[in-house]
Write a structure and sequence with these properties.
It is a single chain. By secondary structure, the protein is of the alpha+beta class. The protein has two domains: 211 residues, no CATH class; 156 residues, Glucose Permease (Domain IIA) (Distorted Sandwich), CATH 2.70.70.10. It contains five helices and twelve strands. Strands 1, 4, 5, 6, 7, 8, 9, 10, 11 and 12 form a ten-stranded antiparallel β-sheet that branches. The protein has a two-stranded antiparallel ribbon with strand order 2-3. A hairpin with a 2-residue loop joins strand 7 and strand 8. Helix 1 runs parallel beside helix 4 and helix 2 runs antiparallel to helix 4. The longest helix has 77 residues. The radius of gyration is 34 Å and the shape is elongated. GO terms for molecular function: metalloendopeptidase activity. It holds the Pfam family Peptidase_M23. This is Peptidase M23B. Keywords: Coiled coil, Signal.
Length: 377
Amino acid sequence: MNIRFFIKASIIAGFIILSSYVQASDLQQRQSDLKSLQSQISKQESALQDTNKQREQLISLLKKDEKAIATAARKVNETKVALAETDKSLHTLKQRQDKLDALKQTQQDTLSNQLASAYLAGNHDYSKMLLNQQSPATIERLLAYYQYLNNARMKSINELQGTMSELDEIQDKQVKQKNKLNKLVLNQQQHSKQLSLEQSQRQSTLTQLQRTVNSRGAKLEQLQIEEASLKRIVEQALLATNNSPSMEGLKSKNKLKWPTKGRIRSGFGSKRSGQVKWKGVTLAAPEGQQVSSIAAGKIIYADWLRGFGMVLVVDHGKGYMSLYGHAQTLLKNAGDTVNKGETIALVGRSGGQTEAGLYFEVRHKGQAVDPARYCKR
């Protein structure tokens, strides 16, 4: 047991040293990149004007920041899932170990009783039994009885050896799972630090961007550009659905679940700015909360989109599609098929949002329809 402990400790210590080196190197590079970006923003600040060129540069920076956040957040989520699975595996191994320990004790007691019975029966010389002219039938019964006891003892011994062998395997698996758990915890800490760093950089870029769109005219212009970007994506998605297999569509009106829990912050058809209206709903929800597909379908778009951040579009067939925006990260890729209620993303603030939430649309043949017609409260 001391040797095992020493090996385990050596493995963990070695991993910690390696992870620390990789993490420090990554942080130094990221800090250098941050300083470079902040220097660029500071230079722009001294002579900042509300120009399309400056705005486009900042939006490009925001895109990079939010995609980096999505990558870090996805790793955090994957590690979180792996931690839960490893913990579950350890729990299962512990339950099996407890059962084997109890079985081992029972088998040892049984074997002990069998050995005691054999000792009490004493040793018999079969040649003396023949010379004493004991009944052949009696001798046959005694031989059969002794053979039975021998077979029972051998069976008990084999069963005990099998149990002890399985116990050794369980203990080896536990050591490996605990080492894996330690590694995952270190990864989780590293990914969380990376996520925090990316979020800090994103906030700097967003603050600078907001200064370039502080007028009403500039905001309206941006909304119109964003609407045009979304329109192109929808048109491309419609073309893609022509080649996809037939699916069920959204038949169940007012019976589907909303993609995430939260209050409606902006409703379908409500005014955004000027003549621009909301073509979907925004659900206020905590960052990192799971987002689920409202129905089965195929992912036809999964990427960053101006004004909407990390966006995922699902084709449900028969001209129906659902769109999920402002995600922190996307957990599925274009081309993946998803089931109803399957987790596809995490709630976020991408797309330049200051508050966490999910932007959600339902469209039929390219036209936006009120999601409340299909999703129940």
